[in-house]
Amino acid sequence: MSTALVTGANRGIGLELVRQLQAKGLDVIATCRSSSDSLDELETGTPPVRVETGVDVASNTSVAEFGKKLGAPKIDLLVLNAGVMNLDVIFDLSIEKVQKQIEVNALGPLRVVAALVDKLGEGSKIVIITSQLASIENNNGGLYGYRMSKAAVNQCGRSLARDLEPRGVAVAMLHPGFVATDMNAHQGPVSAETSVRGLLEQIAALSIETTGQYRDFEGAELPW
Ligand SMILES: NC(=O)c1ccc[n+]([C@@H]2O[C@H](COP(=O)([O-])OP(=O)(O)OC[C@H]3O[C@@H](n4cnc5c(N)ncnc54)[C@H](OP(=O)(O)O)[C@@H]3O)[C@@H](O)[C@H]2O)c1
Questions:
Q1: Which residues make Cβ contacts (< 8 Å) with residue 122, sequence separation at least 6?
Q2: What CATH number should be reported for the domain holding residue 109?
Q3: For the chain, how many structural domains are there in total?
Q4: Ligand 1 atom closest to 178 (CA)
Q5: Which residues line ligand 1 (CB under 6 A)?
Q6: In which element (H, E) is residue 26 found?
């Protein structure tokens, strides 16, 4: 039996990842700040999802304490999904909101990997849910904190790919598509179900030979 851990699992893409991973028979550890009825329902499914509340990826102490108490076996799949977006514009900028996005989207995944790295080994996979908005080929402007934080987490993923290759751990940076979730007031044309089906296909295809790649949920390679 394989074990997967998903952050930001109480709603949106994270919740759907937990659902589909459970349906594939994986033991899933679903972390969140606070749970939801939809996530709680999966605790009684087969196999039961293990819900861990109080895990704030923006907090050093929260993540470190979670790492110490987890006591799980090897983690075969670690999905760093938790994220926030603010529609920053330069003419009315809140630096605090930019900082928040960097804390959650860029430092959050690094914190979680640092806390759990000893549970990753030969054959494990790390997936960073990033965005195509990270691309330096940015012709649209705006979204300062979101673009900067996702570009930073892509760089984090590149370093992880090199550092963990000798341990047999593969890393991917995956864009889920423009998905209808709370993040965009459900405006995205792609459903969470379709996005996650595609993400899981990309995760299945990920290997140490393809480690460090930046792709979308349909497998297209994205420009850095
Ligand atoms: N939707 C899209 O079109 C789209 C496109 C590209 C990339 N993405 C990425 O996909 C990922 C999931 O987004 P989504 O669309 O599912 O958005 P969402 O519905 O807004 O869900 C965001 C998730 O992140 C969690 N989160 C936020 N801050 C957190 C923190 N400090 N600690 C722990 N969890 C935290 C939220 O938990 P709370 O309920 O506690 O806030 C929630 O579970 C994000 O990384 C996002 O950037 C989404």
A1: 167, 168, 169
A2: 3.40.50.720
A3: 1
A4: 3
A5: 8, 10-14, 32-34, 56-58, 81-85, 104, 129, 131, 175-176, 178-179, 181-184, 188
A6: none
Tell the residue number behind the tokens 């009684």, with chain if given.
Answer: 44
Give me the amino acid identity at 173. Answer: M
Instruction: Compute the C-alpha angle 165/168/169, nearest 5°.
Output: 75
Q: Ligand 1: distance of its center to the CA of 82 in Å?
A: 4
The pTM (predicted TM-score) of the whole model is 0.98
CA of 94 from ligand 1 middle (Å) equals 20
Task: Note whether residue 224 is domain-resident.
Answer: no
Mutate to test the pocket of ligand 1, among 19, 81, 190 (most ligand atoms within 8 A of CB): 81
Tell me the pLDDT tens digit for each residue of 163-215: 999 999 999 999 999 999 999 999 999 999 999 999 999 999 999 999 999 99
Neighbours of 190 (CB within 10 A): 18
